[in-house]
Amino acid sequence: MKKLFLLCATFLWISATAQNNIPVNDTLRYFFYKQLYKLAPTTSTTAHPYFKSVAPVTGAGPFTHVGSVFKNKDAALKIYGLEAKVLSPPIVVSGPGVGGVKFRLYLCNVVNGLPVLPAIDSISAAVSATQPIQYGVNAGGTFTAGPRTVSGDFAVLGRCVSQMNGDTVNFLRTAGHTATSTSAPAPAYKFGEGLGVVRNAGVFYKTTAYNHPAFGPGTDYEFCVAPMVSFTLQVSDIQSPTQEGACAYEVFTNTNTSSPEFTNPQFNFNEFFRKFRPFHPSAAITTSFTADSVLTWDLGDGSPIFYLSSGIDTIHLAYVGGNCNNFFTGFVDGRHKQSIYNINAPTILASHAFTNSCVWCGYPDGINESEWLANSKTYPNPTTGKTTISGLLGDNTISVYNMMGDLISKVTTKENSMLIDLASQPQGAYLIRISDSGNNSKRVKLIRE
Q1: Quick one: which of 226, 225, 228, 209 has its CA closest to 217?
Q2: Is residue 244 a contact partner of residue 280, using CB atoms and an 8 Å limit?
Q3: 313-340 tens-digit pLDDT
Q4: Among positive and negative, which fits the CA dihedral 220, 225, 227, 233?
Q5: Domains, the chain, ordered by start
Q6: Predicted TM-score of the model (pTM)
Q7: pLDDT tens-digit profile of 169-183?
Q8: Nearest alpha carbon to residue 30 among 78, 74, 67, 81
């Protein structure tokens, strides 16, 4: 019997790097939005929890700074100012005063998840004592010396700096709880992320399960502060080079290298929406807002569009090649929803096209593809979950890979048919590799609908 073998195919990846860099100036009031989305209408812009930051004078208590941590993977993120959501008017013992009750906001580095002083920079602000009661008043400003560049995680802190005993600035906060609560919290309250911080008697603590009378056991408060950020969005990726010796239906890789802000829910409202949905249907902030994808790949060969998982900034995308002797135009798309003063601002779209192809080198001794594949069949394909491989001879090992190149299952069988169950797997393309005892193998691209 003539031994069958397949000569190589060449798969060409052309590097894709977007040329359309897009500058963005934006401030996402992350924690304020999260509070509204998760708890509305129980909590809204007319009823929002807050923390009383009192004047740092005799008898003011041990708490000084309160704030929140921002996760950041941008090596050169520019922050040009700070702001906080506060309750207006403040509690004023000294009278209305000129300029209201003063407070200060601080930009700090983070070490081991906690802020460190001295601050990178700070700004002064005030809350008017003459306005009617308002929840969610924006107060803050820009740095006097211009934008500051940060690398890695950072924190924004607030502190009342009035010198009049009893003056209070009420910083809005979230009402998040964790599973460490003394009583089991309702699911709607389980949205704290351990990002809230307080400074008590000169020491910083996370508010997660912070057992203090001012917070209570099991709480996970986060404070509604925000950086004013400036960054450049760029869509780019690194595709695997020409694969010599690799056959069609083999796995190739595509690594995302786009701007980290695309996948950071604290800077991109698209990612925020994906992370915290479903939101309460009565959340007024969702008016006229349509969630867009953050990062997607369309490989151009008819495969389903691949969505980058929420919160992941770099991933290996396994492409199962097929339909040889054709060139395909694919696209990497990145969408960023602006939120500066208006979360319904237009979406920024950065897109870049790339080209790939898969070329058969042919079969030896006049053997064609139909003869090579004749011994076994895979059906149905596409499938909604289960598919059968029939016509197997002798000992065979059947391996199933997903689009990321992960091995889903591997089974050795002597049977002439085998059932593959992908019902618990997500939709998309899969690679089935069938290998016999003589190290001959073939590959089948299977679509899970």
Answers
A1: 209
A2: no
A3: 777 766 665 555 566 777 888 889 888 7
A4: positive
A5: 9-21+234-360 (no CATH), 24-229 (no CATH), 373-448 (2.60.40.3080)
A6: 0.77
A7: 889 888 776 655 555
A8: 67
